Amino acid sequence: MNDSLQIAGRRFRSRLLVGTGKYRDFDQTRQAIEASGAEIVTVAIRRTNIGQNADEPNLLEILPPQHYTILPNTAGCYSADEAVRTLRLARELLDGHALVKLEVLGDAHTLFPDMPETLKAAEILVKDGFEVMVYCADDPIQCRILEDIGCVAVMPLASLIGSGMGILNPWNLGLIIEQAGVPVLVDAGVGTASDAAIAMELGCDGVLMNTAIAKAEDPLRMARAMKLGVEAGREAFLAGRMPKKTYSASPSSPSAGLIGA
Description:
Blueprint: E1 5-7, E2 10-12, E3 16-19, H1 26-36, E4 40-44, E5 69-73, H2 80-93, E6 99-102, H3 115-127, E7 131-136, H4 140-149, E8 153-156, H5 170-179, E9 185-187, H6 193-202, E10 206-209, H7 211-214, H8 219-239
Parallel strand pairs: 3-4, 3-10, 4-5, 6-7, 7-8, 9-10
Antiparallel strand pairs: 1-2
Helix pairs in contact: 1-8, 2-3, 3-4, 4-5, 6-8
């Protein structure tokens, strides 16, 4: 825990956060999440039963809250009002649970965030006592505003949700990380373990993903790969990479004291 992820006063060993959608069934969901080592599991309240439908299988029976930090999210919401209502329902279902993930989408085609509605919802939720982690554009100004509102983490997209395109704008992420006083977690667009490693090497505090694991040919193996990718990227960031040298080579072995020199 010497290098733990800290969000809203909580400490987590794993810097990988995972979603619960798109798996074949609940059993595969459980196995993949166990393989990932994730401690924070995000759940789409509008799409997944966590007790609101008594006659349907309950996700919390395979992912019990005493073992995982359940992070209810507002996937599928297109207005601030929808998002606020959804998270208030989640708080009731989870016995007052305050840590949530806010996302307000702009359109169904790109699933890009609607930032004016996101800001509006964030203000309401923070005033209502929620600890808000927020999906947002990779815009340093918007992220700063969200932090000033009181969000406990900003979660800029790397690329479009479910696209697997990886990190398309590392420069914006770098600006966000440089100025942030709260954790910065890449949310959306990660496709494989190298994408996760790059996010962590840039200095992100964590990575959230779902489709990259759930839609892999072997979700369990990909979950393990993502775990290792996040860990490797974090270690590389902490180690500090060597400087890049354009058109300059440096031998790995000593050049002095050679036989015949």
